[in-house]
Design goal:
This protein is an alpha/beta fold. Helices cover 38% and strands 26% of the residues. Helix 4 (105-115) packs across helix 5 (120-133). The protein is globular, with a radius of gyration of 19 Å. The relative contact order is 0.16. This is ABC transporter ATPase.
Amino acid sequence: MFLWNWLDKMEQENIIQVQNLTKKFGSFTAVNSISFNVKKGEIFGFLGANGAGKTTAIKMLIGILAPTEGDAIVANFNVCREAEEVKKHIGYMSQKFALYDDLTVQENITFFGGIYGLTRKQIHSKSQQLVKELSLQEVSNSLVGSLPLGWKQKLAFSVAMLHSPEIVFLDEPTGGVDPITRRQFWEMLYKAAHEGTTIFVTTHYMDEAEYCDRVSIMVDGKIEALDTPNELKKQFVVESMNEVFLKLARG
């Protein structure tokens, strides 16, 4: 009985469970039989060079791309059979800017709040809170397209969190932004994780691995390493995650 209780607890702690997940496009294998778990409230880094298969993997996990083989459970729903349920319980910020440039800040918040099924009262409350937290009071009626990239990215993350999802998936969220904005963005991620949201973030910036609870490193569609940053540095006898990645890339 104790063993079964322990196994049940382990299952509950894992909010993402991936087993032999594979995606092929014709003869090309973009994601090659990857397996891993992500715990509730964890900041999980999904690292790798451009073209390593990170974006393809994340698209399968959020239910917009069907796996060729394997399976995954996300927020207690099967990505193959219950993709629409998966989408209701997650937030997603794509590699390309996800908001509408020709709508104002306020209009974007209202639009996406409606998509996420929030009531008018909830949208109004969340909108006021979001604008205040991001210090966007002076530009709330400005077109999003007029904002600096860093502000856009922070706004896009906040909008992805409007419906209080259990997990938020972020695909290269800090690409192209300056170092100060990157640090501010990661402070937002820490705050969300501290409040119980699981953060699944893909990046090719190896220094960002240091901010994660655990990281996996993909090379040519496969996960070649997975552990805490400190344990990976010990394992590869190096001082930085960039050196870990270089060793893996060189084979």
